[in-house]
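Researcher: Sequence recovery benchmark, item below. Answer with residues only.
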């Protein structure tokens, strides 16, 4: 009988409701044979697809964590057809600390899915997700927010990848979630993120950004739960309740490099736009002040692209390279479909 540095106490093939943990070996001075116990739930009944729902990749992103925690508490396994795997606090050390990265190794879980896995707690968590969970899945939904440093308009996201058949399935699922903003485009092919690990395994990848600023927003939590429930219904795994059935207007959006505004130096950021504003190239974005030099004029910042202000910095003090704004450009649904149709 072999041993592993990361293992699950749950049987992925067993029917019914299971709540337990994934244990990741963590040997330290105070605990030579210690292990981190990531909360994990498996719900299986009948025949149907398998989905992995994950939150807490970053510990200071709360809406997804709460949406999945509530799902675990309330889900009636007899109503599902298929299998739901739930990781509500994927990088548990970061979740417990309320930090973006792990206090154990500084690891950013969503940047740990490259060609190899670091021999660290965060690297071992990524390896288990990619190599032990994703091969069992048809769909992966990874819930995020802006974290402590950013506020983010709620949106669903689909990495369309480069395969047309999978992109068509992905876009259909994105539309079914019916978020206020539906963000669809091909991601960075070599990015070491969880979504790209899913695509390498042939799994449909969906994500979303739901709030941020280091706090929990009831409105953004509502959007996150809506997306989860509508996606499960679309996949035929769990019928949604009447509360989620009404369609809402959605805008299809995309992102490009010109949509980012970064701090060119340190200082205190004074924004000249707010979340949801429509801005144009060359429009005033804000100022960077240095109160320690009160006679020095501020640096004036301008937007280098046009679009919807979807992300803005929530912290006042900045360092060079800090993201201050991210825009999302609006795109017609038919244009997305044409791009998918041109894929191989």
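Model:
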């Amino acid at each position: 009988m072999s041993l592993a540095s990361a293992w699950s106490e749950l049987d992925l093939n067993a029917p019914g409701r299971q709540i337990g943990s994934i244990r990741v070996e963590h040997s330290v001075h105070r605990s030579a044979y210690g292990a981190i116990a990531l909360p994990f739930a498996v719900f299986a009944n009948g025949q149907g697809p398998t989905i992995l729902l994950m939150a807490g990749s970053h510990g200071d992103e709360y809406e997804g964590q709460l949406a999945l925690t509530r799902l675990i508490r309330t889900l009636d396994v007899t109503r599902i057809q298929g299998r739901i795997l739930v990781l509500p606090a994927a990088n548990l050390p970061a979740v417990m600390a309320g930090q973006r990265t792990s206090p154990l190794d500084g690891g950013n879980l969503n940047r740990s899915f490259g060609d190899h896995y670091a021999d660290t707690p965060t690297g071992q968590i990524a390896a288990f997700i990619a190599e032990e969970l994703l091969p069992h899945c048809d769909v992966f939904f990874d819930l995020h927010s802006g974290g402590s440093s950013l506020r983010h308009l709620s949106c669903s996201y689909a990495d369309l990848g480069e395969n047309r058949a999978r992109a068509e399935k992905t876009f259909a699922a994105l539309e079914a979630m019916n978020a206020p903003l539906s963000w669809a485009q091909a991601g960075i092919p070599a990015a070491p993120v969880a979504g790209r690990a899913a695509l390498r395994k042939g799994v449909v990848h969906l994500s979303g950004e739901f709030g941020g600023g280091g706090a929990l927003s009831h409105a953004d939590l509502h959007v996150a739960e809506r997306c989860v429930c509508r996606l499960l219904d679309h996949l035929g795994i769990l019928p949604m309740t009447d509360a989620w059935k009404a369609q809402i207007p959605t805008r299809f959006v995309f992102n490009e490099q010109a949509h980012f505004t970064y701090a060119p130096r340190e200082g205190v950021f004074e924004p000249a736009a707010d979340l949801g504003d429509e801005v144009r190239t060359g429009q005033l974005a804000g100022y960077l002040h240095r109160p320690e030099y009160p006679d020095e004029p501020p640096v004036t910042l301008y937007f280098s692209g046009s679009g919807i202000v979807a992300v803005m910095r929530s912290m006042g003090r900045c360092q060079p390279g800090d993201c201050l704004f991210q825009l999302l450009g609006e795109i017609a649904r038919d244009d997305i479909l044409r791009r998918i149709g041109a894929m191989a």
